[in-house]
Structures are given as structure tokens and as C-alpha cells.
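User: what does the whole thing look like in 3D?
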Amino acid sequence: MSSVAAPTGFSLFRYSAPAQFYPLAGKLAPWFYAVAAILAAIGLYIGFFRAPTDFQQGDAYRIIFIHVPSAWMAMFLYVVMAFWAGVGLVFNTRLSSLMASAIAPTGAIMAFISLWTGALWGRPTWGAYWVWDARLTSTLILLFLYLGFIALQAAIDDPRRADKASAVLALVGVVNVPIIYFSVKWWNTLHQGASVKPGGSSMAAVMLTAMLIMVFAFWAYAIGMALTRVRALILEREKRSQWVAELLAARGR
Amino acid sequence: MQWGSVENFLAMGGYGFYVWGSYLVCAAAIVAEIVLVRARSRRALADARSFAARGAGKGV
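Assistant: Here's the predicted 3D structure for the full assembly of 313 residues, as C-alpha cells:
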């Protein structure tokens, strides 16, 4: 445990080594889960018991409290995943690539939730579960990009080669994120425009509050999940190394 | 409470199927992810232990 210690005090780079990051992630993850659970409880309470029925959409609009957070997280996580994949590709850092792999399944689940909730919201408001609209189609492509990233990694035996190939896929796919975001502006779509944008919101304050609290809950959940998953990935890849043997011995198991 | 009764709350103004269909599947997806990640973590730890037990640390 001595070779990677920072020479003077605290250094962020210290944690770029899997051996250092593994215990840190283990300490941090439960806090993110706790924050996620508390925020979700508050957000859902406000969303279902404080926010009034919408005068246009009735109570169907309450789907927004998970639809928008999952859709935002699906896009945001993709950018973060592609960033770490890119860092791993350029600087050849193992942990960066593992972070990208740890984020992918959560991103895929977020994309799935946003599509599913969108379908169930679309039926009562538009009369259809699915339409080949620019916003919906580009979000479906996002889900396929996540699944493609996961599948490509699983298909290549050499882990570092898998990291590199999937990083290229992730980086090429980044172009889809602005397409999703601006699709409601660029094309004449069925999907409504952004309710929340820089400079103002068209939503009632109490609805917006519940939705933003849910956004932070999803955020905390995704970070906790990425930290837990990256620990499993680190162990899978480094099980032969000295530090893992030492760590397990120190635990007395 | 604006709903008055549990029945009204579950009915969601006639949109119960859509609202609860969204929330239940969202909850199921998150629970499934947590279960899968925990299983993977346990598997990885058990695997690492068996490597360590075989006198690892020498590299393979």
C-alpha cells in the first residue's frame, strides 16, 4: 500500500489507483444511497400530497416526477460515461475505463425508465404509447447505445482491448445527446418542449420543487450505484493482484 | 390530504393505470438493479477470495 501514497497530504490523483479507490468508493456509496432514499421520500411526498392536480392533464402529469429525472440522468450519465471512456482511451488509465463500464448499466436502466414512463404518459395525453417522434426515437437510440456499449465490452475477451473498442463507440454516440436535447426545438415533435430551461420554468413552483428533488434523488442513486458497481469491476479485474490479497487478508477472511 | 380516501389516491383521477404502471416498473427496475449489483459484488468477492486462498499475490 506504500507505492502509490501521495507524498504530501491529500491528493485527488491518489484515488486514481484502483487499490486506493476501492475502499473510498465503499465508504462513500452508502451515503449516496441514504441521500437518494431521503430525497425520494421527500420528493414523492411533495409530488403526491402537496402538488395539486394539473388543470390540463389531471393526475397523469404526476409521472413527470420520475420521467424527467430518469430522462435527464440517461443523457447526463451517457456524457459522463463517454468522458471516462475517453479518458481511459487517451491516458490509458484503468480506473477511468472501469468507471465508464460501471455507469453503463445504470444509464441503460435510466433510459429504459424514461421510455417506459414516457409511453404510459403518452397514451393518455397523445393517445399513443409510442410514436416515431424525434425525441422518442433519439432516446431509444440512446438506450441502444448503452446496450451496444455493454455488449461490445462483453464480446471482447481481452479487457483492455474491450475498454478501448467500447470507448470509441461511446465517444461516437455522444453526438446523439445534443440531438435528444434539442430535438423538440429542431423538429416539429409531439413531445412537449422543455418545461425547465435556463431563464425560467413553465411549471408551478410546487411541481417544479418535487421534480427537482427527484432529480437529485436519481442523481445520488446513480452515483451510489456506479461506486458499488465499480468496486465489483475492480475486484473482477484485479483479483490476481497483491493489493487484493492484502486487503482480504487484512479483513481476516 | 387532498385525496380524501385511499381509493381516490389509487384512482389518480382515472389515470391510476398510467401513473402506477410508471412508478411500479420504475421501482422494479431499480430493485432489480440493486439485486443484480449485490449478486455481482458477492461473486467478485468470493472469486477474489479463492484466488487469495490459492496463495495468490504472485500474479498469473
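In plain terms: Chain B touches chain A at residues 1-3, 9, 12-15, 17-19, 21-23, 25-26, 29-30, 33-34, 36-37, 40-41, 43-45, 47-49, 51-52, 56-57, 59-60 (CB under 8 Å). Chain B is about 75% helix and 0% strand.
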